[in-house]
Amino acid sequence: MRFSADHLARMLLGSGARSGPLHRRLSEGLRELIDLGEIPPDALLPSERALAVALAVSRTTVVAAYQTLHHEGKLVRRQGSGTRVSSSGRPAQRETVSASALRGDHAGAQFLNGPVPTLVPTLDFSTAALPCLRLVPEVAATLTMSEYAELGTSYHGYQPRGLPALRESIAATYTRGGVPTTPDQILVTSGAQQALELITHGCLQPGDSVVAEAPTYRGALEAFSLANCRIRSVPCDDNGMDVDRLDELVRERLPRLIYVQSTVQNPTGAVLAYGRRCRLARLAERRQVVVVDDTALAGTLIEGSPPIPLAGLTKTERLLTIGSMSKLFWGGLRLGWIRGAPEVISRLARMKGITDLGTSLVSQLIAVHLLDRVEEAQAIRRQELAGGLADLTALLSEYLPDWTWRTPRGGASLWVRIPTDSVTNFAHVALRFGVAILPGTAFSPGGVADDHTRLPYAVPRSALVAGVQRLARAWEVYAEGHRDVPVVAVTT
After folding, report:
1. What are this entry's molecular-function GO terms (predicted)?
2. Where does the chain hold its CATH 3.40.640.10 domain(s)?
């Protein structure tokens, strides 16, 4: 197995120490990835020169790190054969799933092992998770002992389809929004990510073709990669997915599945325009293709009225809608759902039953009461996100005037273009100044968009100010072409 310099650079953003000499930090990061199995035995590492460019360090730094691990027996170096991870007496791992989707560079990587040890307080701008809405503990605290007791006595605890009361509440929410829905059209899942995984495994086989926006939600790209699907991309602009280009791709070769985020796209914050929605709905009716409409961010709309859902424009059974409580209320609830035809929902429910027998009933009971206050929650989120967006764009205009962006209509992050051909390189310099960012390649099929990054604004203003100021200092150093910049003491 061969690791490219850019791929390894992305993996190293979340590994190793963040203090001390750069060669030691690099060797510790590589050692950690090797010990965890993220870089398997016999894997071929990139050349010293290529990795130095990707990490924005000198070649001497990479040589020293490789040499340290060679002396420890972690790496094997042979003239003309490159640098490989030592097998250490272990057989090379047989790849049973897509390595590119599992080896360190994935959406859950930053949550798995906790914070990286560091003497410099690092601001994490690599995630766009929203803070818990205050309504969640308020509502949870109002539930009575009798409600919990009834939950325990009425159900054995295993409900793969979901708590009946929650399915009724979700269905009623769709119906009020102009999309008549019955509870048998709803499957409750452990978050929108599980919903996407169930659809992927239920609808796709290895080698199937999938069309997605570029950029798009990285968790979707990883799910499709794990299923060994071929991913083709369609541009996404201010009006959402380019449906004209989508139609061209479909005519060229019919995909098995189309993945779209029609209402608040991640990471751009775009909303699919009405005309495009109608054309996509007609395409779904004409073609034998599954359309997955991921609306996990729909509750974070900042401007404008909620658009007509795709499900309200077509009755095709090949349309599946994903929803979530995570962005509007709190990710810790771990609640999402799939809306679809009853027969499809039944098949997916059987798959879910095999996977986990059902989602937490306690969380679902809280969610039933939260959905009674969904309009209040949306108003709170709208105010918070609008303020954060205004703060971030003002700070970027002041400190980084050559960075550009398109104003999002919703969501918790800004899709920013940086005047460089490698944000992957710049991210390592930014990390030395105490702020972690992700390159745009993480959100794009084929690893393009390395001139973009996603910056969150659903964070305290003090963190936004400090983060942008640190990025400005890092950018000044990077733009001047400096390498081997040590960890910088930060005061903001």
Report:
1. DNA binding; DNA-binding transcription factor activity; pyridoxal phosphate binding
2. 135-373
Strand, helix or coil for residue 446: helix
Q: Which CATH superfamily is domain 123-132+376-479 in?
A: Aspartate Aminotransferase, domain 1 (3.90.1150.10)
* CA distance linking residue 125 with residue 456, whole number of Å: 6
Tell me which residue of 178, 182, 192 sits closest to 337, measured CA to CA. 192
The dihedrals phi and psi of 233, each to the nearest 5 degrees, come to: -120, 150
d(CA 280, CA 272): 10
Phi, psi of 16 (to 5 degrees): 80, 180
- Kindly report the number of other CB atoms within 10 A of residue 273's CB atom: 17
- Contact, 185 vs 345, CB < 8 A? yes
Strand partners, 481: none
Digit-coded pLDDT (tens) for 222-280: 999 999 999 999 999 999 999 999 999 999 999 999 999 999 999 999 999 999 999 99
Retrieve residue 148's tokens.
Answer: 């919990």
Q: Per DSSP, what are the bridge partners of residue 137?
A: none
pLDDT tens, residue by residue, 371-392: 999 999 999 999 999 999 999 9
Token pair of 320 as six digits: 């599946």
Cβ neighbours of residue 139 closer than 8 Å, sequence gap 6 or more: 366, 369, 370, 373
The neighbour count for residue 24, using CB atoms within 10 Å, is 16
CA–CA gap between residue 59 and residue 37 (Å, rounded): 25
- For the chain, how big is the Rg over CA atoms in Å? 23
Q: Position 467: which residue type?
A: G
Class of domain 135-373 as given by CATH = alpha beta
Task: Determine contact, residues 207/230, Cβ cutoff 8 Å.
Answer: yes
- On whether the CB atoms of residues 28 and 118 are closer than 8 A, the answer is no
CA–CA dist 487, 485 (Å, integer): 7
Residues of the chain with CATH 3.90.1150.10: 123-132+376-479
Q: Residue 9: exposed, middle, or buried by beta-carbon count in 10 A (0-12, 13-18, 19+)?
A: buried
Strands 290-294 and 319-324: parallel
| CATH 3.30.2310.40 assigned to 5-99 | no
> Which residues are CB-contacts of 171 (< 8 A; sequence separation ≥ 6)?
181, 182, 183, 185, 186
